[in-house]
Amino acid sequence: MCSAVFHSLSFITIQWKLMFKHVRNAIMPFGNTHNNFKLNYSVDEEYPDLTKHNNHMAKVLTKEMYGKLRDKQTPTGFTVDDVIQTGVDNPGHPFIMTVGCVAGDEESYEVFKDLLDPVISDRHNGYKATDKHKTDLNFENLKGGDDLDPNYVLSSRVRTGRSIKGYALPPHNSRGERRAVEKLSVEALNSLDGEFKGKYYPLKSMTDAEQEQLIADHFLFDKPVSPLLLAAGMARDWPDARGIWHNENKTFLVWVNEEDHLRVISMQQGGNMKEVFKRFCVGLQRIEEIFKKHNHGFMWNEHLGFILTCPSNLGTGLRGGVHVKLPKLSTHPKFEEILTRLRLQKRGTGGVDTASVGGVFDISNADRIGSSEVEQVQCVVDGVKLMIEMEKKLEKGESIDSMIPAQK
Amino acid sequence: MPFGNSHNQLKMKFSSEQEFPDLSKHNNHMAKVLTPALYEKLRSKQTPSGFTLDDVIQTGVDNPGHPFIMTVGCVAGDEETYEVFKELLDPVIQDRHGGYKPTDKHKTDLNPSNLKGGDDLDANYVLSSRVRTGRSIRGFCLPPHCSRGERRAVEKLSVEALGALTGDLNGKYYALKNMTEAEQQQLIDDHFLFDKPVSPLLLASGMARDWPDARGIWHNDNKTFLVWVNEEDHLRVISMQKGGNMKEVFTRFCTGLTKIEELFKNKGHAFMWNEHLGYVLTCPSNLGTGLRAGVHVKLPNLSKYRQFEEILKRLRLQKRGTGGVDTAAVGGVFDISNADRLGFSEVELVQMVVDGVKLLTEMEKRLEKGQAIEDLMPAQK
């Protein structure tokens, strides 16, 4: 009697599962992209081989987690396979820890939080799932920063990214969405005046002369070649709806539809970081206002700050930096340690992964989330000021041991 | 490149005009056929596995083409793609395959005894002979769209089927991801190894996802029969050897293919085939037979003859450099193969190569002796 009941119950369960699977498949087209047959295969059969991988995603994504997340999707249809494809296709490097996952829309960070929260924590110094992020774009809160020694500081720059609420992100957006982002952005940017008055150059209708000029100004961005970016799908339909906007003074520049909806850059020669940051904040806020009026504000929440495509750019998405001459300090045995304590990082003057030339380094903030824009730029301003002092001491043959800072 | 836009459920909120790709600078078969009206008609459809119009065309949108080379610009994600999107693919097929109509029937003939001659191409001129084709396994999505589970299932089935071959076809499978350095070097030396594709045409279609998972190379002990698993198609099958005995190459090709097909059928997974398109493959350019039969042949004099191109055209042959498509000929040695894929059977296509190369060799010998070849000019086949 018991076994008969058991058998009929398990029969019913099997029928229910088959029926449910059919319904589930009917309403949930998939990624990897969106193969409806995928759920017919077991977790074991679909789980990626991550044995040779070294990126944040591979460190976090267990088979169990994959099993739990694989039948979910965001409202726009982004799935866990979409999130991780770039990390599966790019095992990484023994020395460089890449992120290995992307968001396809704002909701990715919620629907796939089981994967993305630990990735974020790993990448951003233990930032917890319950932590709150502070946004501060009030340039008046920055102390000093207008007097970095131009004998040492050659140029100053602040960049960030912004995503427009209501549209899928570059790995996932359709042509219609990308064009709508472009249209809105151009409207917003063209309404700016004063020092922000400028012009938009769409990639697909650029004249040769315009292209030459943008290259000479170091403003032009080209179709990505990095397999990390290509595997995420963000180069689809290139160069449709991509473009560059800049003001007449060439001190404020916006990239439209490259790795994020918007990349915003403020820069100028010399060491007046305060002015660069002021322009940055003012310009950003003016643009944000216009987007809000169209009911498409920037993606932001109190946990993650500004939402961007790559989890490494959450929070402020801000990299504030200078090109600075540090030929002596850079060869000092404690250079790396000093940078770590100041929460700064160095790059060559060609950007990430380039070598420095002539003792000139790109020094910028290391953090993105858990501290505000003002705080991060303050780190740069104070840190660079200190490093220039150290450089001057070393020039005179003096010791800098008394100046080594405490960990910030 | 996964297709973020293809399953974007917000897409239908945008008008067809807002979503229609900008094809104004494009020169590929897809761009010639896809009008805004056609896009509107097809954009809400999907195959049973979920492949959409945007998936079909993504590679053609991302790769505008070349002023001189007409690429196809679209791919299939599963067998049903050719049916669901026939209004786009039939005209593309027609353009690409010499006017092949949607109502035409394709004939398959893999009986090597139907090939006349082909065992005596002059080995002083013909250095090597080779026949290749592709096959898709019914029930699984194609490389642009398959999941890891499907790809692995194709690999598993293929390895089982190939493992059952015996005699001249006894061989071994080398999975890309487990290959030892020594095995890799040997496969490179044999010119057997395939690597992750770099062509943007292939990458944009999504077929390199999860590389090198479930990809591999199988070959027989004699190194005359080779199968690629999960590269651009589920299977690519190659028969080859030195010298000019195309008959032997083709016989092995047919025998091997037929045996493999039986093994797959016994497991409930036949090859994708229908009487209109023949063998169904990822790229519309490979439909029908999917067959390219060719030789490496020395034609230093003939290749400089003013009517060389015209002769090839009339013989329904094409030339390539010995590095394959888009390479230059070295030392007067050319890769000469059939130009057609669909609308002719395998036997017919190999016959054209055999007869054509025989004639080309005759012409070469005449020219060597300083004799005329006008009387040898063939009519258009």
From TrEMBL, chain A:
Cited InterPro entries: ATP-guanido_PTrfase, ATP-guanido_PTrfase_AS, ATP-guanido_PTrfase_cat, ATP-guanido_PTrfase_N, ATP-guanido_PTrfase_N_sf, Gln_synth/guanido_kin_cat_dom
Biological process terms in GO annotation: phosphocreatine biosynthetic process
GO molecular function: ATP binding; creatine kinase activity
Top-level taxon: Eukaryota
CC per GO annotation: extracellular space
Keyword Endoplasmic reticulum: no
Residues the entry annotates as binding ATP: 155-159, 218, 263, 319-323, 347-352
Signal sequence bounds: none
This protein's UniProt keywords: ATP-binding, Kinase, Nucleotide-binding, Transferase
Ranges for domain Phosphagen kinase C-terminal: 152-394
Pfam family membership, one: ATP-gua_Ptrans
Domain Phosphagen kinase N-terminal: 38-125
EC number: 2.7.3.2
Family: Belongs to the ATP:guanido phosphotransferase family.
PANTHER family: ARGININE OR CREATINE KINASE, CREATINE KINASE
Name of protein: creatine kinase
Organism: Cyprinus carpio (Common carp)
Origin organism lineage: Eukaryota, Metazoa, Chordata, Craniata, Vertebrata
Encoding gene, per UniProt annotation: LOC109084142
UniProtKB/TrEMBL annotation, chain B:
UniProt xrefs under CDD domains: creatine_kinase_like
Domain Phosphagen kinase N-terminal: 11-98
Signal peptide (from-to): none
Alphabetical list of Gene3D superfamilies matching this protein: ATP:guanido phosphotransferase, N-terminal domain (1.10.135.10), Glutamine synthetase/guanido kinase, catalytic domain (3.30.590.10)
Matching InterPro entries: ATP-guanido_PTrfase (IPR000749), ATP-guanido_PTrfase_AS (IPR022415), ATP-guanido_PTrfase_cat (IPR022414), ATP-guanido_PTrfase_N (IPR022413), ATP-guanido_PTrfase_N_sf (IPR036802), Gln_synth/guanido_kin_cat_dom (IPR014746)
Start-end of Basic and acidic residues biased regions: 96-109
Annotated catalysed reactions: creatine + ATP = N-phosphocreatine + ADP + H(+)
Keywords annotated in UniProt: ATP-binding, Kinase, Nucleotide-binding, Transferase
Region (Disordered): 96-115
EC number(s) on file: 2.7.3.2
A GO MF term: ATP binding
Any one GO biological process: phosphocreatine biosynthetic process
GO cellular component, one term: extracellular space
Binding site for ATP: 128-132, 191, 236, 292-296, 320-325
Positions of the Phosphagen kinase C-terminal domain: 125-367
Cross-referenced Pfam families: ATP-gua_Ptrans, ATP-gua_PtransN
Source taxon at top rank: Eukaryota
Family listed: Belongs to the ATP:guanido phosphotransferase family.
PANTHER family: ARGININE OR CREATINE KINASE, CREATINE KINASE B-TYPE
Identification of the protein by name: creatine kinase
Species per Swiss-Prot/TrEMBL record: Cyprinus carpio (Common carp)
